[in-house]
Amino acid sequence: LRCLTAGESHGPSLTAILDGVPAGLPLAAEYIDQQLARRQGGHGRGGRMNIERDRVAITSGVRGGLTTGSPLTLVVANKDWPNWCRVMDPGAGADLKSRAVTRPRPGHADLTGAIKYGHRDMRNVLERSSARETAARVAAGTVARRLLEELDILVAGQVVQIGSIKARALDLTLDTEKLAAAVANSPVYCADPEAGAAMVQEIDAARAAGDSLGGVFEVYVFGLPPGLGSYTQRDRTLDGRLAGALMSIQAIKGVEVGAGFAAAAARGSEIHDEIFYRSDRGFYRSTNNAGGIEGGMSNGDILLLRAAMKPIPTLYKPLRSVDIHTKQPFEASVERSDTCAVPAACVVGEAVTAWELAAVVLEKFGGDTMGEIKERVALYRDYAKSF
Ligand code: EPS
């Protein structure tokens, strides 16, 4: 399973090409659009989201509501593009002057990207480094989410911290529908309503101060069979792959699996999940500090991932920087930005997790059609249960 995305933040569109999606997967554009709408939402988003209404156009690989086995092309148009078509024009007549960027923002890709690719106008960097790109990744990841659903593997997520406000620990006995409903009802995608209300206040206070906020989100996956990923080679470890996927999201600075960093302070006897057996259930554990991964493989428990997002670096409040042409110091300030995009990042986190899991599922079970894959997964689940 492979995916590439292309497109600029203020270009005509974002595109994802997905190769290796099996045939026979029921897929509707409206299903993808639901996730695109979630990604646009969350309290703390800025003016750009009042312009965009992300919708996917599926231009290849799906016919009559079913994937064909051919590559899928997913296109999300940028509604803001008409305002930028002269600036972003690929032809010789492009307006390269009026929106040139020579003042790098601290915390952004601007300066290092310009040095790396030899740009004197950092617009060439920021147009692609922008988190707008995640619209394409959410579209792609939602195809993977659909595939996993067919195998009774469900992906969910929630925001658990914004700035200094933390949510109560999630009750994992909560069923996935209840969790999804609690998250959907929250303006910051947090299942704890009291913490959610405090997070909204925290965001409003940061916005009033011209500042930005980061936070932490969690991704949960229910119904994974044991044995996805492998201990046999570094690049096949499931935790390594999922951490890489989450770290690749713009502004993510840390990833944890299960107890994560807290495990470092515990004794081994306190943190490892003891193993039990019941004939009707097979092997199981009564705790999940491992977060569903042991030895680089899924162990059959709920997958628990956590990612930390830094505050968005585009600030109304100026930070010191240096103009790359004049070499003179200046204080950066901007016209338009999000105050907090942690809820959006949570949706992206769910999408990239789904993508990576669909890839490992296909590596383990193979198959060109959904029928074959379903049969093989069912057989393997029975085998693992009676092991
Ligand atoms: C972003 C800057 C803002 C955000 C954008 C990411 O866009 P603009 O520069 O057009 O105001 O709104 O996020 C999105 C457009 C999106 O779809 O998430 C940045 O610099 O990364």
TrEMBL record:
This reaction introduces a second double bond into the aromatic ring system. It comes from the Bacteria. Gene3D superfamilies: Chorismate synthase AroC. It catalyses: 5-O-(1-carboxyvinyl)-3-phosphoshikimate = chorismate + phosphate. NADP(+) binds at residues 39, 45. Keywords: Amino-acid biosynthesis, Aromatic amino acid biosynthesis, FAD, Flavoprotein, FMN, Lyase, NADP. This is Chorismate synthase. Belongs to the chorismate synthase family. The keyword NADP applies. InterPro entries: Chorismate_synth, Chorismate_synth_AroC_sf, Chorismate_synthase_CS. Its cofactor is FMNH2. One of its GO terms (cellular component) is cytosol. Homotetramer. Pathway: Metabolic intermediate biosynthesis; chorismate biosynthesis; chorismate from D-erythrose 4-phosphate and phosphoenolpyruvate: step 7/7. It holds the Pfam family Chorismate_synt. Reduced FMN (FMNH(2)). FMN binds at residues 128-130, 250-251, 295, 310-314, 336. GO terms for biological process: amino acid biosynthetic process; aromatic amino acid family biosynthetic process; chorismate biosynthetic process. Its EC number is 4.2.3.5. GO terms for molecular function: chorismate synthase activity; FMN binding. It is an enzyme of class 4 (lyase).
